[in-house]
Amino acid sequence: MSHSDTIPLHPSSQSDIDEIENLIHASVESSPPTVLPARPPSPPRASIPVSSSPFIPSNLPPPPPQSSNHKPPSVPVPPPIPTSSLPNDRPNIASSGFGSPPNTLTEPVWDTVKRDLSRIVSNLKLVVFPNPYRDDPGKALRDWDLWGPFFFIVFLGLILSWSASVKKSEVFAVAFALLAAGAVILTLNVLLLGGHIIFFQSLSLLGYCLFPLDVGALICMLKDNVILKVIVVCVTLAWSSWAAYPFMSSAVNPRRKALALYPVFLMYVSVGFLIIAID
């Protein structure tokens, strides 16, 4: 028996199948078609307004229009800063040693020379001549320099060498070495005694105090008279000692004042002796 052969159904089975098919068709044709309920609609969503302007419109009322006569409120202008609030006889902050120093890299050479000469003249007046700042040495040489002392030492050495009849170069070398080394030794002496003074400020002070002796040496060179030389040297020696006294005495303890002033007086006496002795 092969698979292609079919077996005929029993007549009763065939009639049952036909009856079931007729019942299915009859039930389909007799019953109305049922429609499934549709999906309920979704609730409406809030819409976001889209505007082409980058600013959000405001509900505030617009400002009232301004009249043409209305003027904007005036802003108070601060008063101008005065350029110089100090008296005319006092230097400004930069020139008194405080604040940022002026820029001198791009200024002309003549301006630099004039500024240095004016500083030398000012310091010379504060040290050698009577002034109200002699009681306060810190104010007198606040703007100290070394150009003035160097000029007075060289000038005194040149006058002594011109006054000498022989060995002019040796006279200049001895005078320059005596003054330069003496100023350094005197400054170290004050510092070792516990003095409150700046090293280069002391050198500047001792150099400026040589100005009276420079004047005396110049007069002695022009007038070759021994009596006149002695008188001029004594006056200029007293002048130089008077100029150096308040600064050197106030730098040390009052008990050590003589130890600080005696070497200064001794150096000036040595210079005066050179002025008289050189012929």
Automatic annotation (TrEMBL):
In this chain the Yip1 domain maps to 142-273
Do you know which InterPro entries this protein is assigned to?
Answer: Yip1/4-like, Yip1_dom
Q: Does the keyword DNA-binding apply?
A: no
User: Topology relative to the membrane, per the entry?
Assistant: Multi-pass membrane protein
Q: Which residues cross the membrane?
A: 146-164, 171-192, 198-219, 226-247, 259-278
One of the record's GO cellular component terms? trans-Golgi network
Pfam families for the chain: Yip1
For bias kind Low complexity, which ranges apply? Answer: 47-58
Q: Where is the stretch described as Disordered?
A: 1-101
Q: Where is the composition biased (Polar residues)?
A: 1-15
Coiled coil region boundaries:
none
Q: Name one GO biological process term.
A: endoplasmic reticulum to Golgi vesicle-mediated transport
Q: Where is the protein localized?
A: Golgi apparatus membrane; Membrane
Spans of biased composition, class Pro residues? Answer: 34-46, 73-82
Write the record's keywords in alphabetical order, separated by commas. Membrane, Transmembrane, Transmembrane helix
Domain of life the protein comes from: Eukaryota
Q: What family is it from?
A: Belongs to the YIP1 family.
Write the protein's name.
Protein YIP
Q: What is the lineage of its organism?
A: Eukaryota, Viridiplantae, Streptophyta, Embryophyta, Tracheophyta
